[in-house]
Amino acid sequence: xxxxxxxxxxxxxxxxxxxxxxxxxxxxxxxxxxxxxxxxxxxxxxxxxxxxxxxxxxxxxxxxxxxxxxxxxxxxxxxxxxxxxxxxxxxxxxxxxxxxxxxxxxxxxxxxxxxxxxxxxxxxxxxxxxxxxxxxxxxxxxxxxxxxxxxxxxxxxxxxxxxxxxxxxxxxxxxxxxxxxxxxxxxxxxxxxxxxxxxxxxxxxxxxxxxxxxxxxxxxxxxxxxxxxxxxxxxxxxxxxxxxxxxxxxxxxxxxxxxxxxxxxxxxxxxxxxxxxxxxxxxxxxxxxxxxxxxxxxxxxxxxxxxxxxxxxxxxxxxxxxxxxxxxxxxxxxxxxxxxxxxxxxxxxxxxxxxxxxxxxxxxxxxxxxxxxxxxxxxxxxxxxxxxxxxxxxxxxxxxxxxxxxxxxxxxxxxxx
Length: 417
Known about the structure:
alpha+beta; Double Stranded RNA Binding Domain; DNA polymerase, domain 1; hpI Integrase, Chain A; 3 domains; 4-stranded antiparallel sheet; 3-stranded antiparallel sheet; 7 strands; 9% strand; disordered C terminus; DNA integration; DNA recombination
């Protein structure tokens, strides 16, 4: 032990409290303060700017004699550099507090708490963050994060084969960074710079809900959508008409015949290049009439939010609008998609409602041939398809209204199958 140090581990360990506070000096300003209650507290006495000051190093045995001496020596180095150790500690504590207040985890939880998702999806997103993101960058100041930080997180997920999850987590991280920018706690979102850095997600079929009870829950969620009215109408109409998303968003008012309850889509808008007719149920017509009051002066039934309805630059809504709305409702791309409403209708119309498959295929605008191998024209089975589309809309209403066990729909007697 150096001559300037006076205490020993044994002396510190055996020191007993007395009626008054006692100080056991070690050297270079370090001492152990014994309190009547039995506390053993490390203190450093020093002078700065001509004033005597004290600095606490914690209590024994949590802080050993060797630890206390190391802290004393570090404080004396600061004094030698004309820095007050107490002020240095306050500044470091304030910096840690600021760092914690603007950490990625804090921002992510704040952002997550403001999302209006269904409980299951909300829990899933939070689990992604807690398991795959927070352990690596949760404590980092959000303003200091760069693209490689997020790539490191995504690579760990990708490395275990969860490629789609890696993309989803990266997408959510980008949303948190946008929120950080909006709230003034970051200036740059580096996540978009990672476009193309991960392996592409494997090609998948469009997710669709085919269980009637789950479909009823989705329909109720759609009715509670709190976004744009135009988007709400697109959401509500999608399962009723089950066209391809691109056909719906490009719908023009000139194609809708309210009197005859038909939507006639020209061939150039169809995947197969052939004109298509969509019979409109009473429910579909009601939605379109509501929508017409808002966008009826323009070309498109569903104009983009960044274009003025009726203007020369008017464009249809984005191709991802309905999917994005489904995400807001808590349905991820592995559960429900705009395109998936087609599979939903095809499955339930056939397996639950037992409509003739050729009626369904016609309504899906699939290539259907007659016995001689010729393609049917767009008006084929139109009367039967009208009945089917109205029956489908009525059935969706029963699903939406039933929050318990779904009762199989019974078609009116004499209705074509």
